Amino acid sequence: MSLKKLLAITLLAMSTSLSALASDVVVPVDPVIEGQEVPAKGLYFSSSFEFELSSEVEDVLQRGITLYFVIEVEVEKKRWYWFDRSICGIKETIRLSFNPLTRSYRVAIGGMTQSFSSLEGALRFIKTINNLYVGSYRNLNPEDYEARARFYLDTSKLPRPFQVTLKKDDGWNLNSGWFDAEIKGAGEK
Q1: Does the keyword Signal apply (predicted)?
Q2: Cα separation, 62 vs 42, whole angstroms
Q3: Is 10 exposed, middle or buried (0-12, 13-18, 19+ CB in 10 A)?
Q4: What percent of the chain has pLDDT over 70?
Q5: CB atoms within 10 A of CB 147
Q6: Which residues contact 50 (CB under 8 A, 6 or more apart)?
Q7: Separation of alpha carbons 141 and 129, rounded Å
């Protein structure tokens, strides 16, 4: 590959990622599914995400309306003779809320709840997903399996008056779309 071609591809990738950040798109960083023995035998998803809340979304949060973020992960076995077979998957909802009386933010994932004094701290916690249990442990050959995931703000869980007046170009389109995640076996680095 020539140096000019490589430079053009690099510039295109950089401009795409910068425009993605500017248009409220969620950008995944190093998504991976790994087979682990600890804390419990299984497949675990880890990634971090880059996004910013628009002023409209922050305003709704400051009014006491809960925001719902969703992380979905799927692992499938590739088959050339038929449709791909689903091996395992998970859909986890992350709730972000603000309490005007205590001036604190709460993040709830599954049965765990944590409080934060600032929005930045709460978002930093939401943006980093570590060891999310996806399914039972299998020795996966990365050539035979593929994994994909997505992270998005679920606007369907907002109160109905907000859904009616919602405009996707007002910063409510926080969505990574489906992206591929690397698969690693237990002990692989």
Answers
A1: yes
A2: 38
A3: exposed
A4: 78
A5: 24
A6: 21, 26, 27, 29, 127
A7: 23
Q: What angle do CA 132, 23, 18 make, to 5 degrees?
A: 85
Cα–Cα distance for residue pair 107/95, rounded to 1 Å: 6
Amino acid present at 50:
E
Query: Is the pLDDT reported for residue 189 higher than 70?
Result: no
DSSP 3-state assignment of 115?
Answer: strand
- Is the torsion defined by CA of 176, 178, 180, 184 positive or negative? positive
Whether 25 contacts 51, CB under 8 Å? yes
The answer to whether the beta carbons of residues 133 and 90 sit under 8 Å apart is: yes
Return the domain boundaries, the chain. Answer: 3-184
Backbone angles phi, psi at 60, to 5 degrees: -65, -40
Q: Which two tokens stand for residue 95?
A: 């709730």
Instruction: Give the predicted TM-score (pTM) of the model.
Output: 0.79
∠ CA(131), CA(155), CA(101), 5° rounding? Answer: 80
pLDDT tens, 47-100?
999 999 999 899 999 999 999 999 999 998 888 888 878 888 999 999 999 999
Contacts of 28 (CB under 8 A, 6+ apart): 47, 48, 49, 149, 151, 176, 179
